[in-house]
Amino acid sequence: MKSRLKLVGLVAAPALITAVVPAAYAANGAQPHANRAAIAGDVLPGLKQNATRTGKVAAGKRISVAISLIPRGRGALDSFVTKVSDPRSSSYGHYLTKRQFAARFGRTDAEIKQLKDYLRAHGLTVGTVHSGNLLVDASGTAAQLENAFGARLSTWKDTTTGRSFYANDSAPTLPTAIASLVGDVAGLNNRVQLNHQATPHTVNPHNGPGGGYTPAQLKGGYNVSGTYSGSGQKIALLEFDGFQQSNITAYDNYYGLGSPTPTVQKVDGGSGALGDGQVEVELDIEVLHAIAPKANVTVFEGPNSDAGEVDTYQAIVDSGIPTTSISWGAAESARTTSGINAVDAVFKAGAAQGLGFYAASGDDGSDDAGDGGTSVDYPASDPYVTGVGGTRLTVTSSNTWSREVAWSGGGGGKSSVFKIPSWQTAVQKNAGGGYRQVPDVSAHANPSPGVSIYSQGSWSSVGGTSAAAPEWAAFAALYNQQAAAAGKARLGFANPALYSASGTGFHDITSGSNGAYSAAAGWDFTTGWGSYNAATLASKLLG
User: Distance between alpha carbon 512 and the CA centroid of its chain, in Å?
Assistant: First the structure.
């Protein structure tokens, strides 16, 4: 199951393709603001081509926004992340603390005061100023937001789906001095809603009740040593729905896992009442328990909004939890450029602090946008994220790896936003056209058989790259436990080290297709480097 935002050498700094935005106009569209500048790329792509304007947002409607600021010394930050993530560098693993990151790359208190004073002068309520001084929450009425950001908020109707939403008609503007600090204002539209796509399978061909692989089959298939269980390690889950602990307890008890009870951290009030994403959350938790049963899992539950998304990522970075699994995303084309940049900045801050993110690459094969072309899912396409594709794993009767093929639904292809990072250039493909290539790695995702889980009071088999992402996050936790015992640095942002392994420690998957692309020897657009042989890959990375 992959949940979607339909609503996923040296390290080179990724290049972002951003739109050039003309001088912004006042909310009524008549006269340009004096001494103001637009926030480039902060308007939905193809808005007027793909939707019909139906009116104006009610002036009194309250809306929350999250304002992302551009890190100080971006070039220096890029260089730092390059060195700290490269296993060949003497700086490898010497990560920054949260306080050190803020001192070197965060905005100054004076700059934050300037922004806060401006927002309050326009009637907005200023909320949390997150650590690092790079994200500021605020809220106000639609009329106050229009006045503050110089952009009309309208109601729209999607011409394809018929769904109603609101959005800013043009890029927001701010006084020039403040605009030079701001990269994105999340929350001015609610078109991109976080929905999940379940891929259950009810046939019962394998050992787990309800069908699907058991913890023993997953661990055996990927050669996970019984010596390491994730003890003393922490894993975060990014979620936009909740779960019932009784289901997790039933799963743990059935398999005798003895896992710690997950902790819940609500962001911006949490995700609200249980919805159809509950199966997603319970799948993520149970897969982590299956492979790394003693790891401590924290479930970060945020609201289903642009502002909620960036706030939830920031909360994870603020927590300092080393490993995060992500099963929610959207096609790159569904997002604003500035919104992608804002989330990318949070991932980059996490990389500087030694945090690793593993994101599902999507369940729509090579056509993540569903428009008949080729496209990839964000955040799996982010250069500071390990994108996880899908396979179909076959294990022997003694629970050892037998074979693996690419799963047809596994997302993969080239980014339309990020240039190829230098750690990936050694496997650069002509079809990539010089852009970031996805996925980086892969794991079992085929829903037939899927993974045996207990959710909503019953057993079922669930698949998708939403299963593959926590399978890799669990490996990272196991590796970090082993690295700590050996006195080595934790894995952190994993891609440079994984690519430096040059295929050692991976099951190279050479058959199967995800639509436009076919598996082949070495790295490919369907499965990346392939799935992990835990013992061999850990040994390679430690060595």
Answer: 25
Identify the three-state secondary structure at position 317. Answer: helix
Dist. CA 476–CA 434, nearest whole Å: 29
Q: How confident is the model at residue 209 (pLDDT cuts 50, 70, 90)?
A: confident
Task: Work out the number of other CB atoms within 10 angstroms of the CB of residue 28.
Answer: 8
In sign, the C-alpha dihedral spanning 251, 253, 257, 259 is positive
Q: Could you write out the DSSP letters of every residue in 41-92?
A: T-S-TTHHHHEEEEEE--TT-EEEEEEEEPPSSHHHHHHHHHHHH-TTSTTT
CA distance 463 to 468: 8
pLDDT, average across residues 112-132: 97
> pTM higher than 0.85 for the full model?
yes
For residue 495, which phi and psi values (nearest 5 degrees)? -55, -45
- Residue 525 pLDDT: 98
* Contact present, 122 and 147 (Cβ < 8 Å): yes
Please tell me the distance from the alpha carbon of residue 198 to that of residue 214, in angstroms, as a whole number: 19
Strand partners, 524: 528
Max Cα-Cα span within the chain: 73
How far, in Å, are 198, 303, 304, 450 from residue 187 at the CA level?
A: 27, 11, 11, 36
pLDDT score recorded for residue 199: 60
C-alpha span between 258 and 110 (Å, rounded) = 49
Q: Would you say 193 and 274 are in contact if contact means Cβ atoms under 8 Å apart? A: no
Q: From residue 421, give the alpha-carbon distance in Å to each of 80, 267, 436, 441.
A: 15, 32, 7, 16
Using alpha carbons, list the distances in angstroms from residue 535 to 222, 224, 306, 420, 506: 8, 6, 39, 30, 10
Residue 4 confidence (pLDDT):
44
Query: Encoding tokens for residue 402?
Result: 């037998």
| Half-sphere exposure of residue 476: CA atoms within 13 angstroms, side-chain side | 31
Q: How far is CA 465 from CA 116, 206, 211, 497, in A?
A: 41, 19, 17, 22
Q: Which 3 state secondary structure label does DSSP give 183?
A: strand
Instruction: Copy the structure tokens of residue 292.
Output: 């790394």
> To the nearest 5 percent, what fractions of the chain are helix, strand and coil?
30, 25, 45
- What contacts 24+ positions apart, CB below 8 Å, involve 74-80? 74/13, 75/13, 76/104, 76/105, 77/104, 77/105, 77/348, 77/352, 78/13, 78/348, 79/13, 80/104, 80/352
Rounded average pLDDT over 363-376: 96
pLDDT of residue 77: 97
What is residue 39's DSSP assignment?
Answer: -
Q: Side chain identity at 159, as an amino acid letter?
A: T
Sign of the alpha-carbon dihedral angle for 520, 384, 222, 211? negative
Residues written for the chain: 543
Indicate the DSSP class of residue 185.
Answer: E
Per-residue pLDDT at 14: 37
